[in-house]
Amino acid sequence: QVQLVESGGGLVQPGGSLRLSCAASGSFFSLITMGWYRQAPGKQRELVADVTPGGSTHVGDSVKGRFTISRDNAKNTVYLQMNSLKPEDTAVYYCNVKLVSGSMSLRDYWGQGTQVTVSS
User: Fold this and answer.
1) 3-class secondary-structure state, position 88
2) Is 89 helix (H, G, I), strand (E, B) or coil?
Protein backbone atom coordinates (compact mmCIF):
# COMPACT_ATOMS: atom_id res chain seq x y z
CA GLN A 1 0.00 0.00 0.00
CA VAL A 2 1.18 3.51 -0.84
CA GLN A 3 0.26 6.69 0.99
CA LEU A 4 0.60 10.24 -0.26
CA VAL A 5 0.50 12.97 2.37
CA GLU A 6 0.01 16.49 1.09
CA SER A 7 0.52 19.72 2.98
CA GLY A 8 0.88 23.43 2.42
CA GLY A 9 -2.43 24.61 1.00
CA GLY A 10 -4.39 27.55 2.35
CA LEU A 11 -5.64 31.06 1.77
CA VAL A 12 -3.30 33.65 0.30
CA GLN A 13 -3.68 37.12 -1.17
CA PRO A 14 -3.04 37.78 -4.86
CA GLY A 15 0.67 38.11 -5.47
CA GLY A 16 1.50 35.90 -2.52
CA SER A 17 3.28 32.57 -2.32
CA LEU A 18 2.61 29.07 -1.07
CA ARG A 19 4.64 25.87 -1.05
CA LEU A 20 2.96 22.50 -1.39
CA SER A 21 4.60 19.25 -0.31
CA CYS A 22 3.68 15.65 -1.00
CA ALA A 23 5.48 12.76 0.67
CA ALA A 24 5.12 9.20 -0.58
CA SER A 25 5.47 6.29 1.78
CA GLY A 26 4.71 2.59 1.85
CA SER A 27 5.80 -0.37 -0.18
CA PHE A 28 6.98 0.16 -3.73
CA PHE A 29 9.99 -0.59 -5.90
CA SER A 30 10.68 2.88 -7.28
CA LEU A 31 9.06 6.24 -7.90
CA ILE A 32 8.85 7.51 -11.44
CA THR A 33 7.15 10.80 -12.25
CA MET A 34 5.85 12.93 -9.38
CA GLY A 35 3.59 15.84 -10.06
CA TRP A 36 0.76 18.16 -9.22
CA TYR A 37 -2.63 18.55 -10.84
CA ARG A 38 -5.39 20.99 -9.99
CA GLN A 39 -9.13 21.16 -10.39
CA ALA A 40 -11.17 24.32 -10.09
CA PRO A 41 -14.96 24.23 -9.64
CA GLY A 42 -16.68 23.37 -12.90
CA LYS A 43 -13.42 22.66 -14.69
CA GLN A 44 -11.48 19.55 -15.64
CA ARG A 45 -8.44 18.46 -13.71
CA GLU A 46 -5.31 19.79 -15.36
CA LEU A 47 -1.61 19.11 -15.04
CA VAL A 48 0.24 21.87 -13.22
CA ALA A 49 3.74 20.41 -13.29
CA ASP A 50 5.63 17.17 -12.98
CA VAL A 51 9.22 16.06 -12.47
CA THR A 52 11.15 12.90 -13.34
CA PRO A 53 13.59 11.13 -11.03
CA GLY A 54 16.45 12.83 -12.89
CA GLY A 55 14.97 16.27 -12.32
CA SER A 56 13.49 17.00 -15.74
CA THR A 57 10.39 19.11 -15.34
CA HIS A 58 7.28 19.90 -17.32
CA VAL A 59 5.34 22.99 -16.27
CA GLY A 60 1.93 24.00 -17.59
CA ASP A 61 1.70 27.15 -19.68
CA SER A 62 -0.69 28.87 -17.27
CA VAL A 63 1.83 28.73 -14.41
CA LYS A 64 5.12 28.87 -16.28
CA GLY A 65 7.47 31.42 -14.75
CA ARG A 66 5.51 31.51 -11.50
CA PHE A 67 5.49 27.92 -10.22
CA THR A 68 8.51 25.68 -9.69
CA ILE A 69 8.41 21.94 -9.10
CA SER A 70 11.19 19.99 -7.41
CA ARG A 71 11.70 16.68 -5.66
CA ASP A 72 13.86 15.17 -2.97
CA ASN A 73 14.44 11.57 -3.99
CA ALA A 74 15.93 10.67 -0.60
CA LYS A 75 12.70 11.77 1.09
CA ASN A 76 10.32 10.57 -1.66
CA THR A 77 8.85 14.06 -1.61
CA VAL A 78 7.76 16.46 -4.32
CA TYR A 79 7.35 20.19 -3.82
CA LEU A 80 5.48 22.90 -5.67
CA GLN A 81 6.62 26.44 -5.02
CA MET A 82 3.89 28.81 -6.14
CA ASN A 83 4.75 32.49 -6.48
CA SER A 84 2.83 35.48 -7.83
CA LEU A 85 -0.42 33.68 -7.17
CA LYS A 86 -3.54 34.83 -8.99
CA PRO A 87 -7.23 34.33 -8.19
CA GLU A 88 -7.44 31.96 -11.16
CA ASP A 89 -4.98 29.66 -9.40
CA THR A 90 -7.71 28.87 -6.88
CA ALA A 91 -8.36 25.13 -7.00
CA VAL A 92 -7.90 21.85 -5.22
CA TYR A 93 -4.36 20.70 -5.87
CA TYR A 94 -3.69 16.97 -6.11
CA CYS A 95 -0.39 15.18 -5.83
CA ASN A 96 0.13 12.41 -8.38
CA VAL A 97 2.80 9.74 -8.29
CA LYS A 98 3.58 7.12 -10.91
CA LEU A 99 5.63 4.26 -9.58
CA VAL A 100 6.76 0.69 -10.01
CA SER A 101 5.17 -1.54 -7.42
CA GLY A 102 6.83 -4.38 -5.57
CA SER A 103 5.33 -6.75 -8.12
CA MET A 104 7.03 -4.71 -10.87
CA SER A 105 3.86 -3.24 -12.31
CA LEU A 106 3.21 0.42 -13.11
CA ARG A 107 0.83 2.13 -10.71
CA ASP A 108 -0.72 5.58 -10.45
CA TYR A 109 -1.58 7.12 -7.07
CA TRP A 110 -3.36 10.33 -6.05
CA GLY A 111 -3.26 12.38 -2.90
CA GLN A 112 -6.41 13.49 -1.12
CA GLY A 113 -6.11 17.04 -2.41
CA THR A 114 -5.32 20.33 -0.73
CA GLN A 115 -7.29 23.54 -1.22
CA VAL A 116 -5.50 26.64 -2.48
CA THR A 117 -7.54 29.83 -2.40
CA VAL A 118 -6.19 33.10 -3.77
CA SER A 119 -8.33 36.00 -2.67
CA SER A 120 -8.09 39.42 -1.13
Assistant:
1) helix
2) helix
